[in-house]
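Good morning N.,

You mentioned wanting to compare the apo and holo forms, so I went ahead and generated the holo version with cytidine-5'-triphosphate. This is what I fed in:
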Amino acid sequence: MNKTIQCWAVVPAAGVGKRMQADRPKQYLPLAGKTVIEHTLSRLVQSGAFQAVAVAISVEDPYWPELEISQHPQVITAPGGKERADSVLSALKALQGQADENDWVLVHDAARPCLTSDDIHNLIATLKDDAVGGILALSSHDTLKQVDGHNITATVDRSQIWRALTPQMFRYGMLRDALQDAEGNPAITDEASALELLGLQPKIVEGRPDNIKITRPEDLALAQFYMEQQQ
Ligand code: CTP
Ligand code: MG
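and this is what came out, ligand included:
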């Protein structure tokens, strides 16, 4: 008899937020009455899609234990790593023994607090029977240029370029093995790239444009605006 396939969430949250230039990692900055990471995690938990959410947290992080959500029964804490991919692998390992090899894992950046239940459920519904999995992505509205320094050398065919967002949805065992094989490779900036390296072709699923990543100071005001619009 087939065991039902379950979904798990993994949240890398062990970055320092260098580009944000704040006094603390960006996931702990205030946004609409809570910290960024509290929005992200409560949206994942409240979507009802996941058995548990494994969060990778830096071992020196003094902010995490202060948050009520760190004690939530569905939230599992794992030690963060040097790069994002190391943090994701660490959180995957924290699910060992609970997650089945064929279960789905949705990896979502702590720094994307505007994620909607719509996007989560649409991604899962679109890919649940897929062999490999895939990612939320956005097309580009701007004309894209290839450059050499500041000189334009070509106009890129926009129909072939998509911007990778999160969540990124892959099979537990396949993702763990792909990240393990690629350990230390700086080209692995998201989960999909680790699977691409194996010659696989993850799918793209069009996501919502309000699922922004807080990266620079001006992004907080934009996230606040999107949250107000979502209500
Ligand atoms: N992340 C992580 N472990 C790392 C680096 C990043 O878990 N060693 C997480 C971040 O906390 C963030 C997500 O990966 O939620 C996306 O990374 P990014 O936006 O680059 O965040 P930071 O690395 O913190 O920011 P910066 O690159 O500006 O320093
Ligand atoms: Mg980074």
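The chain has six helices and eleven strands.

Happy to go through it together on a call whenever suits you.

Best,
F.
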